[in-house]
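User: Small ask, check this?
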Amino acid sequence: MARYAVTTQGISKKFGRGNHRVQALDHVSLQVESGELFGLIGPDGAGKTTLFRILASLMVPDEGTATVEGFDTVKDYRKIRQSIGYMPGRFSLYQDLSVEENLKFFATLFGTSIRKSYASIKNIYRYIEPFKTRKAGNLSGGMKQKLALCCALIHSPKVLFLDEPTTGVDPVSRKEFWEMLDVLREKGITIIASTPYMNEAVRCQRICLVQEGRIIRCDTPENIRKAFPYRILAVRSQDSFRLLQDLRRFPDSCNCYSFGSYQHLYLPPGIPASQQTGLLERYLEERGHREVKIKEIEAGIEDCFMIQMSKGGEHGN
């Protein structure tokens, strides 16, 4: 087995015409190992979907090259389409066909059948088999995604591309979906998934932070957390909007972002937490904040993501 299931070298893509062209991807280079569960993290418009479409041979890059299972995405597109499964961001199956009819249709496209490919989909199909006569359009969000995953797996692909597969799905179904991905990875399938949910990102073996078509950082979730350069104080008060503005003006503040009911204040690592907390309490009291709660916390992937996005970054892996 080749070490890398997916590679890109200097991939660039623009959309539009004349002076109004938008850079969707800007010299993206990455390598995904065979059997790896790899995550793409970035805001809307970062270029994730464009990268998926290029890797799935549905779009030709303006510059650079990409390979999937050793096949060039431009020259060998027919071979690539036989070896990958692709779930686009929106549910794209036939709403008026039943669960079973959708599966049969996709199986026929790849010259197989549900019976022949049952071993590839059984761990997922068991969730939706009781509803096999129900039209796809009448399924819940979680069931739709399970059906889409079954259709992507019906021909036993070696690589799966999943573009935000759990967006809009309830938390229980999202958890089940990622448990299924863990099983597929254990079977040796390479999976590249994008997600806006940080609790999903940490389930990937490596994650790649993408912004404005460029790779900002690519590493394991744990290494990204360890490299976080600041201490964090989580702060809450009654007036959260004014609190955010005042925290950003705090003399030692490196930055501050909202996370639910708390504001995360990023501070230099050298000053003792007790000293910094006391200074911050007096600072907020002088500005009229009441019922202030302050606690020191460890960096999460969300914190790393926000700091990396605010700083931009350099090309690289």
